[in-house]
Amino acid sequence: MAITIWSGLVLGSVYALVAAGFAIAMVPTGVFNFAQGAIVIGGSFLTYQFLAVTKIPEVLAVVLTVLFGMGAGLLCELLAVRPLRWGRGTVESSAMVTTVGASTALIGLLGIKWGDLPLQVPFIGPGGYLHFLGVVAQPVQVTVVVLAVVSALALEGFFRYTRVGRVCLAVAEDRDAAMLRGVNVSFLSLAAFGLAGAFGAAAGVVIGPITYAEPALGTTLALYGFVAVALGGEGSFIGGLLGGLVVGVVASLAIRYLGASYGDIAVLALLLATLAVRPKGLGGFTKARSV
Amino acid sequence: MRRLFIALAALGVVSLLITACSSSSSSSGTSASNSSSHGTVNVLAVVDTSGPNKTIGTGQLAGIQAGAAYLNAHGGILGHTVAVTVADDNGDPTTGTTALVQDLSSNPTKYTMIYGGEEGTIVSALVPVIARYKVLAMAPNDGNDLCAKVSTCPTEFALTGSNSVIEVAEANWFKSHGYTNVGMIVEQIAFTQTEANYLKQDLAQDGIKSEIVGFPTSATSLTPEMSELKSDGAQTVYAAAFGPPQGYILNARPELSWQAPVMFEAAGSSLDIPALAPASEMKDAYETPFYCDNPSVSVPGIGMLMQYANDATYPVNGSLPCSLWGQGWDTMIALNAAAQKAGSLDTAALVKAMQETKVTTANGLIRDAADCWTSTDHENVCETPSDYAVQPVGSLVGGRLHPLASS
User: Fold this and answer.
1) B314-339: burial string, b at 16+ Cβ within 10 Å, e else
2) Could you tell me which residues come within 8 angstroms of residue B175 by beta carbon, excluding any fewer than 6 positions away?
3) Between chain B's N and C termini, which has fewer beta carbons within 10 Å?
4) Is the pTM of this model over 0.90?
5) Does the interface predicted TM-score (ipTM) exceed 0.90?
6) How far apart are the C-alpha atoms of A81 and A75, rounded to whole Å?
7) Chain A contact for B392, CB < 8 A?
8) Mind telling me how many Å the CA of B225 is from chain A's nearest CA?
9) Cβ within 8 Å of residue A104, ≥6 positions away
10) Interface contact A261-B214, CB threshold 8 A
11) pLDDT tens digits for chain A (291 residues)?
12) Is A260–B275 a contact, with Cβ atoms under 8 angstroms apart?
C-alpha cells in the first residue's frame, strides 16, 4: 500500500507541477496555455542536451533551460494569444485552440531535433535509493514531490499576498476595470506567459529524469495537468497541487487494486463527482473579493 | 462554472484536433511514376510514421530505404532505379486501408511492390486491398494468419513464419528456465497486445501460468502495474512495450524490492534499452533481439542483416542501428532476388519467382538464416523458433551489439 501511494504521489507531483505552470499564465490572463506540457518536455530535452551531450556546468544548464522556457512562453503569448485580442471573439476559449497549435508545433520541433526515441535525462543530484516509511524512493522522486509542494505554496502566497499578485487577480476578475485603474494588462500577460514558461522548463529539469525526454509526453502531461487543474480549481495553486496528487494517488490505487484498466476510469469518475459537488473544483478561488 | 464548461468542451476539441492532426493519410515520397514507362521500380511503403506504431514503422521504412539505396548503388533492380513512396497509416487500419485504396484505385499498376503495414492488425486490414488489386506485396508478418492461405494472399508474402514463431522461442526460454508463472506487462496498442496473446497461448501449451496487465500509452509510471504482477506471484516478467515504459518497468523493480527477471519482446528489443536506466538495473534483464552480430564477441542468435552493416559495400557504412530495419531491408533484398530469378518486373512472374526463391545468408544480405516461400504457403516457411535467442540486454554502440560487461 505504501509503495502504491508513494508512486501515486510522485506521479501526482509531476502533474501538479504542470498544473502550476498552467495556473501562472491563467490567473492574470484567463488563458489556458496547452503548450505548457510541451514546454516542460522541452526543458527535459534541453537538460539532456546540456548535461549529457554538451556537458556544461549544471547551474548554467538550468539557467539556459529556464531562459528557453521563458522564451517559449513569450512566443506563445505573442503568436498564439495576443493576436486573438485584436479580434472580437472570446480570447479564453479561442486561445485553447491556438495554444494546442503551439503545442503541436513545439512537440514537432522537439521531434525533429532529438527524434522520437526516449532519452534518459541526468538528474542534478544524488543517485541510488532512499528507504523510508516502507517505500524505496529515488532522490529525484523526493525532489519532485518537495518541489511541487513548495512551489504551490510559494505561488499561492505570491498571488494572494503580494501587490503584483493581487494586481494579477484584479485583471483576472475584470480586465477592463483593471486597465482603467492603470494596470498594464498587455505587459502583465506577457510576463505571466514568460514566467509560466520559465517555471515549466525548470519543472522539466526534474521531471525529465522520471519520465524521460520524449516529444509525445508533452501532450500527455498537458492532458493530465488539465485534469489536475479542473479537479483542483481554476486559478488555485494549492488546488492544483491537491488535484495533481489526488489524480496520481487515485490512479495508482485503482491500477493496483482494481486492475490496470481502471486507472483513467477512476480519475475521470472522481473528476466528474468532484465537479458535481464542487463545480469550482477543490480549491477554485471565489469571484467576489476585495483587491 | 461557465469557464469550466468551456474548458471541458475545449478539451474535447483538443482531443479531436490531436487525433486529426496525427491521422494524416497523405503520402509523400520520392517517386510515383509508372515503373515500366519511366524505368523506375516503385515501392510503396504503408507504415506508421506518426502514430502509436511509429517506432516499428519508421524502423522498417529506414530498412526499405536503406535497401533501395543499396540496390541503386549496385545497379538497381534489373537495371531500374528503385524509388520508395511512403503512405503513413498512423498505426490505424482504416487510415492505412484508405490511403492504399486511394493510391491504387487511380493506377493499379503504379507500384512494383507494396510493403503492406508494420504489424498484424494493419497487415490484415491491407490484405484484401492488395489481393483485389493483385499487386506484389510483402509484409512483416502474416496478418494474424491471413497469409497462411495463398487464396487470401495470392500476391502477398510474409517475412515471418506462421503465428508465434518468435513467441515460441520466448516461451521455450521461460520453460527452459523452470518458470511456472509469467507476469506479462503489455502496452495497450494492437501490436504488443497481439504479440502478448500469442505468447500467452504458447505458455499455456507449455503448462505455464500467465497474467496480462495492460497499460495505456500515456503511462508515465508502471510501478503500480508491476506491483500487481508481484502480488500475483509472477516469477518473471514479459514486457511488451516501447520507449519510456521499458525504463519505467526497469525502474519499478528496485522500488518494489523485486528482482524478477524481465524479458523484453522482440520488437521492443530493437530499442537501446540500456540507455533507459542505470547499468545496475540491467541485471536480470533480457531481450529477444533483432540484433547484429558483434564479431569481436561470440553471441548466439539470429544472423541479422546488420552484421553486414560495416561491410565496405554498404551504403551507410557502419552507422546503422540494430533494429527492425531488417524487415524492410529483407523486403528489398527478396524483391531483387525474385526479379533476378524472373528476369522481369511483371507481377505474375515476380510472384512465381518469389515462390521458388530461397534467399539465404550465403549472399550476405538478409537477416534470417533463410527467407523462402512456396506456392501453397506465403509465410516465410524457412523461419523457425531456433532463429531467435533470448539474450541479456546489451548496449548498441556504433550500430553493433555490445553486451554489457556485467552480462
Assistant:
1) bbeeeebbbbbbbbbbbbbbbbbbbb
2) B206, B208
3) N
4) no
5) no
6) 9
7) no
8) 6
9) B17, B18, B21
10) yes
11) 788 888 889 989 999 999 999 989 888 888 888 899 999 999 999 999 999 899 999 999 999 999 999 999 999 888 888 888 777 667 777 888 888 899 989 988 888 888 777 888 999 888 788 888 878 888 899 999 999 999 999 998 888 888 888 888 888 777 778 788 887 888 888 899 999 999 999 999 999 999 889 888 888 888 888 888 888 887 788 888 988 999 899 888 888 888 777 888 888 888 888 888 777 777 655 555 555
12) no
Quick one: cell of B210? 500467465
CA dist., res. B329 & res. A209, Å (int): 35
CA torsion angle for A156, A160, A161, A166 (degrees, to 10)? 130
Q: Name the grid cell of B313.
A: 559495400
Q: Give how far the C-alpha of residue B390 lies from the chain's centroid of Cα atoms, to the nearest Å.
A: 17
CB contacts < 8 A, A to B, total 130
Using an 8 Å Cβ cutoff, are A91 and A84 in contact? yes
Task: Pick B244's closest partner by Cβ from A118, A234, A251.
Answer: A118
CA B157 to chain centroid, in Å, comes to: 15
A270: its cell numbers: 472522481
Instruction: Give chain B positions within 8 Å (CB) of A104.
Output: 17-18, 21
- DSSP per-residue codes, A226-290: HHHHHHH-TT-HHHHHHHHHHHHHHHHHHHHHT-TTHHHHHHHHHHHHHHHH-TT-SSPPPS---
Q: Does B145 touch chain A (CB under 8 A)?
A: no
Question: B150 to chain A, minimum CA–CA distance in Å?
Answer: 37
Contact B177, B390 (CB under 8 A): no
What secondary structure, in 3-state letters, does chain B show? CHHHHHHHHHHHHHHHHHHHHCCCCCEEECCCCCHHHHCEEEEEEEECCCCCCHHHHHHHHHHHHHHHHHHHHCCCECCEEEEEEEEECCCCHHHHHHHHHHHHHHCCCCCCEEEECCCHHHHHHHHHHHHHHCCCEEECCCCCCHHHCCCCCCCEEECCCCCCHHHHHHHHHHHHCCCCEEEEEEECCHHHHHHHHHHHHHHHHCCCEEEEEEECCCCCCCHHHHHHHHHCCCCEEEEECCCHHHHHHHHHHHHCCCCCCEEECCCHHHCCHHHHCCHHHHCCEEECCCCCCCCCCCCCCCCCHHHHCCCCCCCCCCCCCCCCHHHHHHHHHHHHHHHHHHCCCCHHHHHHHHHHCEEEHHHCCCCCCEEECCCCCCCCCCCCHHHCCCEECEEEECCEEEECCCC
